[in-house]
Design a protein that fits this description.
Layout lengths: L4 E5 L6 H11 L6 E6 L4 H12 L2 E8 L2 E7 L2
Parallel strand pairs: 1-2
Antiparallel strand pairs: 2-4, 3-4
Protein name: TusA-related sulfurtransferase
InterPro entries: TusA-like, TusA-like_sf
Organism: Metabacillus niabensis
């Protein structure tokens, strides 16, 4: 998978991971992929719901120790 941008949102509490993700997605072209790293436990539900509501595609999610990683394709 080609990653176009990586966002480090570790250590940020809700709603900042979503705010930072939205800003980063605005800098991408349709079809590009953003990789997001966060430690906010609520981010899985938040980012999934947000991506669906605005037309982006959550390609993959994984947990690596305390870091949640998301790959979101811009719709």
């Amino acid at each position: 998978m080609k990653i176009d941008k990586v966002l480090d949102a570790k250590g940020l509490a809700c709603p900042m991971p979503i705010v930072k993700t939205k800003k980063a997605m605005n800098e991408l072209e349709t079809g590009q992929v953003l990789e997001v790293h966060t430690t906010d436990k609520g981010a899985k539900n938040d980012l999934t719901a947000w991506a669906n509501s605005v037309g982006h595609e959550l390609l993959k999610y994984e947990k690596d120790k305390d870091v949640l990683k998301f790959w979101i394709k811009k719709g």
